[in-house]
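User: Reviewer 2 asked us to show a designed sequence for the structure in our supplementary figure. I'm pasting the structure tokens here. Could you produce the per-position amino acids so we can include them in the response letter?
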């Protein structure tokens, strides 16, 4: 069967009434959390993990993907009207979008963001459908050595991509890897780091850790900052629709943003932020109206928003084909797969093709839903910005606690939720990224398993990891991903010191 046949089968799965309901719930929730500053799709999916563990796996994963796509859409509303990005990937949109809103052109700014997101999401989802089978064929030749090298690459790139410091990212990763060692060793049957506590013999629940780090930690961090005063929301004046000139100036940036965002999102060290900055730089260089940049250029909204949504589909390429998360939301979605006993990767395409292709096809449906939801209901999304912060974050705390009790009614589990929530708060205060902790807990046992298999086959010869060309290349890339950012930061620091010394002279 070809890709078209699989995609058609996936559309039949995604078009089932209950799956359509799951998709609608996902995109609605995603748009809402994208609009609200400080609440991203990763936090929302983490909150829903304990609530959905008894639901249908396919429907739940379709809902999670809808939240991811919806969060990318909704983030532009806050950036344009409030000059406060709901997501880090919407930072660039605020540069030109808020200037357009202040000039009375908030409607066209929101329209080009929504339509650009639709165009990019549609093209990128089709690209995902056609590229994924080829990566799966390549991954099927992987053995234990190659998979371990791939895990090392994922660890390094995730640690480097999140946060401003590679060292802090690696520290967070090792916290997650340490937590992954707790429990019973699957090979020897010995207990590790359980300290005589029976509740720790089964290890740390990924769901509990994700909810605690993303929801409890974020809530405590926001509460600790106190009341910063009300934010000014720019009113949407005039028509929400775009003029013929706006269309003419937007369609090329949409396509260029898609071409930039998708491959960057698919890279192990990708992420939407990089694509949006590159798209903005490209539009600034290619524009026929350079004087408008910095004062509300529509190209500066169209291109980055397209890159933003294209990267979301690109992120699903390594997640579905190799089981590697490259964003915080993808890491939580990986936890969602494992919650149902599923491991994303090449074997999932062979053993459960209906689920995978139904999930991919649901993204096409989600795109149409989001286009209908975003433009006509813009007034509703703006009203969400008026929800008092204490009510909002108190609701998150309550929902996180009730969800954890529902999934695992245990006093010990609630204690773990609070302890990890405090850990997440402390890490945020000191600038340590959260996502590497969750990635370390999820992928740590898999990396250990593949390393042990490789060493068992080679009878303990560690050099076997470098005799495989694919494994060797992956390990070299991992080393470069670790060393190059450190060198660049050191050079940048040296240049700053040189400039300071020159200014003192």
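Assistant: Here is a per-position design you can include in the supplement:
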């Amino acid at each position: 069967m070809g890709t078209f046949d699989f995609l058609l089968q996936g559309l039949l799965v995604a078009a089932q009434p209950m799956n359509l309901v799951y998709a609608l719930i996902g995109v609605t929730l995603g748009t809402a959390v994208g609009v609200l500053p400080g609440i991203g799709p990763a936090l929302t999916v983490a909150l829903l993990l304990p609530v959905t563990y008894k639901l249908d796996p396919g429907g739940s994963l379709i809902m999670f993907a809808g939240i991811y796509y919806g969060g990318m859409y909704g983030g532009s509303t806050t950036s344009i009207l409030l000059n406060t990005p709901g997501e880090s990937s919407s930072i660039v949109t605020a540069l030109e979008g808020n200037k357009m809103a202040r000039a009375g052109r908030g409607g066209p700014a929101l329209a080009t963001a929504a339509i650009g997101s639709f165009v990019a999401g549609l093209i990128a989802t089709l690209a995902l459908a056609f590229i994924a089978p080829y990566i799966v064929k390549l991954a099927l030749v992987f053995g234990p050595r190659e998979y371990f090298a791939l895990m090392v690459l994922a660890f390094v790139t995730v640690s480097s991509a999140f946060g401003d410091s590679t060292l802090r990212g690696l520290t967070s990763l090792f916290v997650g890897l340490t937590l992954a060692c707790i429990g019973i060793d699957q090979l020897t049957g010995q207990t590790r780091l359980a300290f005589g506590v029976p509740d720790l013999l089964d290890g740390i629940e990924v769901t509990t850790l994700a909810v605690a780090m993303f929801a409890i930690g974020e809530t405590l961090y926001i509460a600790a900052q106190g009341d910063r005063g009300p934010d000014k929301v720019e009113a949407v004046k005039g028509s929400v629709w775009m003029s013929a000139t706006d269309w003419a100036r937007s369609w090329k940036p949409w396509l260029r943003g898609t071409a930039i965002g998708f491959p960057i999102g698919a890279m192990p060290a990708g992420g939407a932020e990089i694509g949006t900055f590159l798209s903005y730089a490209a539009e600034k260089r290619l524009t026929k109206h350079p004087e408008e940049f910095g004062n509300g250029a529509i190209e500066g909204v169209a291109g980055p928003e397209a890159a933003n949504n294209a990267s979301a589909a690109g992120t699903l390429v390594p997640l579905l084909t190799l089981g590697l998360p490259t964003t915080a939301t993808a890491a939580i979605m990986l936890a969602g797969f494992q919650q149902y006993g599923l491991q994303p990767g090449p074997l999932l395409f062979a053993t459960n093709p209906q689920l995978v292709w139904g999930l991919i096809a649901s993204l096409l449906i989600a795109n149409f839903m989001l286009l209908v939801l975003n433009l006509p209901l813009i007034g509703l999304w703006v009203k969400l910005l008026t929800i008092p912060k204490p009510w909002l974050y108190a609701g998150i705390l309550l929902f996180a606690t009730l969800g954890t009790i529902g999934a695992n009614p245990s006093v010990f589990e609630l204690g773990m939720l609070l302890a990890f929530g405090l850990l997440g708060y402390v890490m945020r205060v000191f600038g340590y990224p959260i996502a590497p902790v969750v990635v370390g807990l999820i992928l740590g046992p898999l990396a250990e398993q593949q390393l042990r298999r490789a060493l068992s086959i080679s009878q303990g010869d560690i050099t076997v990891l470098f005799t495989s060309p694919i494994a060797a290349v992956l390990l070299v890339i991992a080393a470069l991903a670790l060393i190059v950012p450190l060198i660049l930061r050191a050079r940048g620091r040296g240049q700053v010191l040189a400039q300071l010394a020159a200014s003192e002279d």
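For the response letter, you might also mention the following. The mean pLDDT is 80. Residues 134 and 321 are 9 Å apart (CA to CA).
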